[in-house]
Amino acid sequence: MTKNNNNKLKIGIYELTGCAGDALLILDCEKELVDIFQAADIQSFLMAKSDNIDGELDIALVEGSVSTEKEKKEILDIRKRAKTVVAIGICACFGGIQAAFLDEKEWEANFKEVYGNIKMKHTKPVQSKPIDEYIKVDYYLPGCPIDKEQFLSTLNRILRGNPPELYRFSVCVECKWNENDCLLNKDIPCLGPITRAGCGSICINHNLPCVGCWGPVEEANIASEFQLLREKGFDHDFIKKKMANFSGTGMADFFGKLKGEKG
Ligand code: SF4
Ligand code: SF4
Fold it and tell me: Ligand 2 atom closest to Cα of 210?
């Protein structure tokens, strides 16, 4: 990694299409924020400073999905300038809510229904996709928004030249640690078995089912969860909508292979 005159790594924090919740979460690290700005040379962070520079970077943290032609160019430019790219948040990692509709015709019909025949002057909207549809991503930090402790530990490790250590198990594990009764046993559709841990099973702790907002866990057995929910009487479209809600391409791709199965 190259260091500037101050011997600090150069970092850029970018926001594409999303709610800006991950950038806000970084800003919300009030106690640690001064340390972060002292440990690294923050070259670009629109939400935090106005003197932003588009130069070469050691690390780019990118929030949000790619939803316009302008953002396509932006993400390619970020990749060109950054040695390491980290996708932060569910939208950058998997597309998020705005990537729920994957069929091109379905997306175009939805767009037309909402916006009519409007012509955008500054940029052309495109079907929303996670950033790895366009560039190579080095690390993924999911969450909706990301978790503060995981963010600080990830940044700390990357600044020291180490890969981040993220949870590689599902929400069910955290749910068991928290001694919750399983909602699936009560026939409540919970996506905990296929969702990456990290949130502390916060929804189930409050008796609400997991809707998958941290995205799919590695090697998620989506077919098995689908089958289980079908056996519990939920129909194909209900399950598809539930799984496609947050995870965009992450879980909904599975349904492309299920053509013909309806219930
Ligand atoms: S309630 Fe949900 S997260 Fe908890 S064990 Fe059951 S399926 Fe897993
Ligand atoms: S929806 Fe699931 S992953 Fe998201 S916060 Fe709730 S329990 Fe955690």
Answer: 2
**Residue of minimum CA distance from atom 6 in ligand 1:** 182
Q: In sequence order, which residues have a C-beta less than 8 Å from that of residue 233 and are 6 or more positions away? A: 187
Q: 185 C-alpha vs ligand 1 centroid, how far in Å?
A: 9
Cis peptide before 145 (omega within 30 of 0): yes
Tell me: pLDDT of 259 over 70: no
Is any atom of ligand 1 closer than 6 Å to the C-beta of 137? Answer: no
25-60 pLDDT, tens digit per residue, is 999 998 998 898 898 999 999 999 899 999 999 999
Q: Return the SS3 of 57.
A: strand
The 8-class DSSP code of residue 182 comes to P
Q: Hey, what are 122's tokens?
A: 């500054």
> How far does the centroid of ligand 1 lie from the alpha carbon of residue 16, in Å?
32
Query: Under CATH, which number does the domain 9-159 receive?
Result: 3.40.50.700
**Tokens linked to 94:** 């998997």
Q: Please give the distance, rounded to the nearest whole angstrom, from the Cα atom of residue 215 to the centre of ligand 2.
A: 9
For atom 6 of ligand 2, which residue has the closest CA? Answer: 203
Which helix H or strand E contains 36, and what residues bound it? helix 30-39
Q: What is the DSSP letter of 121?
A: S
Residue 99: the pLDDT is 85
Instruction: Give me the residue spans of the domains in the chain.
Output: 9-159, 171-256
Closest of 235, 231, 239 to residue 211, by C-alpha: 239
CB 246 within 8 A of CB 211: yes
